[in-house]
């Protein structure tokens, strides 16, 4: 068992934003919430999958909706408490372990906001190893785990319990409910015992986020290049740098969708996103695609930039980091590869793409 302390939160904020690949929500606000709660209640216990008891009741938590909305309609703090109380009341089981449903962006902090108050431990794992926009895009789906019952809660404490036959149906129904809740709500799904959880998750991802964040902050403190430090620790690849000159984004069907253009001398590269960055290409061809993590950073500070934070004139660097192995399998690519998002290309590992910039 480890403890997550206040001094760890900055590294977690940066590292989770890297793993968010543009999605998962900007961690800035939940970082402040977590800092306040740890100051008030003390450090949060972090456990590994190996430390789970077979009869533990593990509850993965995340926020669902369009990241741009969360910048204007911030969490009230009531969502997660109402969600967990509904689980306890309806299922007659008290959660014993919490975890982030996805490690990317603000969702890495979601279980921390409850764990600090309740004293419940947080599992060093998630269901993706990055961020993806739809609920069925998870390791639990690939492992044929049962997605429901799922519980949703909005900022006013309204809750909904959903039972479906499969995760894709859950995504469709939950997405419509999310839109009705203002395109931002909390969700708990793939609830399972400790025995079921072993082998179902992507493990060690909270620790991974901390390592990535520490690499960037350490490089800054030592006057070194934070982007190079991130590449070294993540096994990533530099793709491009330049200036953001065109941003097209809209909230549609509960997602933030759009594109951004990077200009480097006379070369234009285009980045496409649905909450997360999914495809980067220029006139010569594809630079990188999902499921690899496409990461956009401020060129000077190495700060990861989420899709809702894109602004004209920003000087940026574009990287790609290899996806977790589960997503590079044929089964994984069917769920989160380029064609799953409507892009008519075949996935190739980042090392095979042309024109690195």
Strand content: 25-35%
Number of helices: 11
What is the radius of gyration?
A: 19 Å
Topology as a string of helices (H) and strands (E): EHHEEHHEHEEHEEHEEHEHHEEEEEEEH
Strand order of the largest sheet: 16-15-14-13-12-18-17
| Structural category | alpha+beta
Beta strands, count? 18
Helix content percent band: 25-40%
Distance linking N and C termini: 43 Å
Major sheet details: 7 strands, antiparallel
Indicate the mean pLDDT.
93
Indicate the overall shape: globular
Low-confidence stretches: none
Fold topology:
Blueprint: E1 2-4, H1 9-20, H2 28-41, E2 44-47, E3 57-65, H3 67-72, H4 78-91, E4 97-100, H5 110-118, E5 122-123, E6 125-126, H6 139-142, E7 150-153, E8 159-162, H7 167-180, E9 184-188, E10 192-193, H8 194-197, E11 202-203, H9 205-221, H10 226-234, E12 237-252, E13 255-264, E14 267-274, E15 276-282, E16 285-289, E17 293-298, E18 315-321, H11 330-336
Parallel strand pairs: 2-5, 3-4
Antiparallel strand pairs: 1-2, 3-9, 3-10, 6-11, 7-8, 7-9, 12-13, 12-18, 13-14, 14-15, 15-16, 17-18
């Amino acid at each position: 068992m480890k403890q997550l302390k206040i001094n760890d939160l900055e590294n977690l904020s940066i590292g989770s934003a890297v793993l968010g690949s543009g999605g998962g929500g900007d961690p800035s606000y939940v970082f402040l919430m977590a800092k306040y709660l740890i100051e008030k209640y003390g450090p949060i216990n972090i456990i590994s999958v190996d430390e789970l008891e077979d009869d533990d009741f593990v509850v993965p938590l995340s926020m669902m909706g369009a990241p741009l909305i969360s910048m204007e309609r911030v969490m009230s703090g009531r969502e997660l408490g109402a969600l967990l109380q509904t689980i306890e009341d309806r299922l007659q089981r008290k959660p014993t372990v919490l975890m982030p449903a996805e490690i990317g962006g603000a969702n890495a902090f979601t279980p921390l906001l409850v764990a600090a108050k309740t004293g419940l431990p947080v599992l060093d794992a998630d269901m993706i190893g990055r961020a993806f926009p739809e609920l069925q895009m998870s390791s639990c789906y690939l492992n044929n785990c049962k997605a429901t019952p799922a519980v949703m809660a909005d900022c006013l404490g309204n809750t909904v319990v959903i039972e479906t036959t499969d995760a894709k149906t859950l995504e469709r129904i939950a997405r419509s409910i999310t839109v009705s809740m203002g395109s931002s709500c909390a969700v708990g799904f793939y609830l399972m015992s400790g025995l079921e959880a072993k082998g179902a998750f992507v493990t060690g991802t909270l620790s991974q986020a901390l390592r990535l964040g520490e690499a960037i902050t350490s490089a800054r403190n030592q006057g070194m290049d934070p982007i190079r430090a991130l590449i070294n620790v993540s096994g990533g690849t530099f793709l491009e740098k330049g200036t953001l000159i065109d941003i097209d984004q809209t909230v549609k069907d509960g997602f933030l969708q759009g594109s951004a253009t990077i200009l480097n001398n006379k070369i234009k590269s285009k980045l496409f996103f649905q909450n997360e960055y999914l495809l980067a290409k220029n006139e010569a061809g594809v630079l990188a695609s999902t499921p690899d993590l496409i990461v956009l950073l401020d060129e000077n500070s190495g700060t990861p930039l989420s899709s809702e934070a894109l602004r004209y004139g920003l000087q940026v660097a574009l990287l790609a980091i290899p996806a977790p192995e589960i997503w590079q399998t044929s089964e994984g690519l069917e769920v989160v590869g380029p064609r799953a998002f409507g892009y008519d290309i075949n996935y190739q590992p980042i090392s095979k793409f042309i024109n690195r910039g």
